[in-house]
Amino acid sequence: MSGLRQEAFCLQSGRPVLSSPPVISIVDDDGSVRAATSNLVRSLGYVVHAFGSAEEFLGSPYLNDTSCVIADVQMPAMSGLDLQAHLRAKGYRVPFIFITAFSVDSARVRALKAGASCFLAKPFAGEALIECLDAALQGHADTTSK
Length: 146
Description:
Blueprint: E1 7-9, E2 16-18, E3 23-27, H1 31-43, E4 47-51, H2 54-58, E5 66-72, H3 80-89, E6 96-100, H4 105-113, E7 118-121, H5 126-144
Parallel strand pairs: 3-4, 3-5, 5-6, 6-7
Antiparallel strand pairs: 1-2
């Protein structure tokens, strides 16, 4: 597992400066899944914001601070896939990890074609989510540093 805080150095003093941990937004209409996922991600040292719907996330003040979205595929009103498409259309390139109780191949293919980092079927092992999160954040860092 990779470290959350990367060491950076002040150009003037040469002293280490800690960067703030990534912000992970969890969007799931199932409160128990939302709470369990939030607890796991928070235990890794990330800043976590949890939302019961895509609309709640879109209206939040954390949209621009989010480093990665973990979203349920099937939710009332706006699905996780629709949320991803909406954000991409607005120019947001934040990585997405999808979780679903209904693993449908067409949804998986659509998510991955749209650039999803991972697609996990519920129930999933915590370690699988951790690996997906590490990969998503590393991939996002690689694309934003170019």
